[in-house]
Amino acid sequence: MSLFNAIQIAGSGMDAERVSMDVTAENLANAQSTTTNGKPYQPQTVELSEVSGSSFQSALDDAITGAQSDSGPVAGSVEVAGIESEPSQTQLVYDPGNPNANKQGYVAQPDISTVTQMVNLIDESNSYQADVTAMQTAKDMYNAALSVLK
Description:
By secondary structure, this protein is an alpha+beta fold. It has one domain. 49% of the residues lie in helices and 17% in strands. The strands form two sheets. Strands 1-2 form a two-stranded antiparallel sheet. Helix 1 (3-29) packs antiparallel against helix 3.
C-alpha cells in the first residue's frame, strides 16, 4: 500500500463522515417538524460499507511487478451505501393552535431523541477528525520520504 492509498482511504472516510454529519444535522433540524409531505418527518440513517478491492494475490502481484491500477477507489476505503429512512414512532404533542393539529388538539411529531442525535454528531465529528489526522500523518510521511531523496 502506498502513501497515496492511505490519503485516499482517509479522504473516503472524511467524505462518508461528512454525509453522516449532514444527515444527523437534518434529523436534528426536523426533530420537531409536524409534517413533511403530509406525514411526520422520518429520521434518516447512513449506511456505510467498505470498498472491497482486489484479492490479496492480485495486490501482491501488482506490488512485485510495480504495476499500479488507479481505476476506482482503493480497497479498504469507505463509501456511502445508502441513506435510508429509519422506522420510528411518532409522538403526539398537545398543541391546539397548530394548523396540523387533529380534532383533539394533538400534533404528530417524529420521536427523535435530540440527545442521541447530538451524541451521533459528536461521534461523527471525532471520526472525521481522526481521518484528518490520518491524512496529515500520511502527508508528513510522504514529505519526509521526499526530503530523504534530496
